[in-house]
Predict the structure.
Amino acid sequence: MVKNLRLNLAIVFVMGVAPLMTLGQQAMSQARPQSRAGQPVFSVDGPGERIENIDDLKKELKAYHACTCKCGCYTHDLDVQADKAVAFLRRRAAHVRPNEKLAMVFDIDETSLSNWTVLVQEDFTYDKKASEAWEETGQAPVIPGSLRVEQEAERLGVAVFFITGRPEREREATEQNLKAQGFGGWQQLSLRSAAMEAKMAEEYKSSVRGEIAAQGYKIVLNVGDQWSDLKGKPEAEYSVKYPNPFYLIP
């Protein structure tokens, strides 16, 4: 009888431990990926890998600007939007009402003038001192599509207003830069006053548009590269957003 008891205990012990060993082996198997035919195994973090690497993104931005990637062509995309602005101006001017004063608004940086030189120089980071030093040189090249829009506005009798986030102290350099690149017939150039420097871009720019409307103008077109250039009351009848994957101004 003792012999049988020992046998039963041995059976229970073996049957009880075996499933536990199987579970342990399964857990170890899950924690330790198995390679196939001696191939190496790599462990990656899924969520983290979905975020694009910053160095790869910078390369893509440069390729987009140079029109050398499948991601698109910056100059082509700018021209497409500029053509839409020109087409709208022609339609709208053809239906101007008596005594109606039409106006359009332009942003400057990455809309009328390009700061690509300093963007690449600063590796797509914003350095206030470097950016303002570049703007003071007055050497920013024109964005050709915007010059076409401005010239068409002048031809159609639509008043042109520039609203920029540049500080008031850069007025002379900005005026000279715009004129050197072919812009010359604008009605008004608005830069940030000291009182406005603490305001968010949307608040500042919409307040200037309000001042333009208060002068009796109907703002029919607004062209900018940031949503903060375009949104906020009063808004234009038609707003054209240029592509700008290089930086964001809320």
Observations:
- The beta strands are 101-106, 159-167, 188-192, 217-224, 238-241.
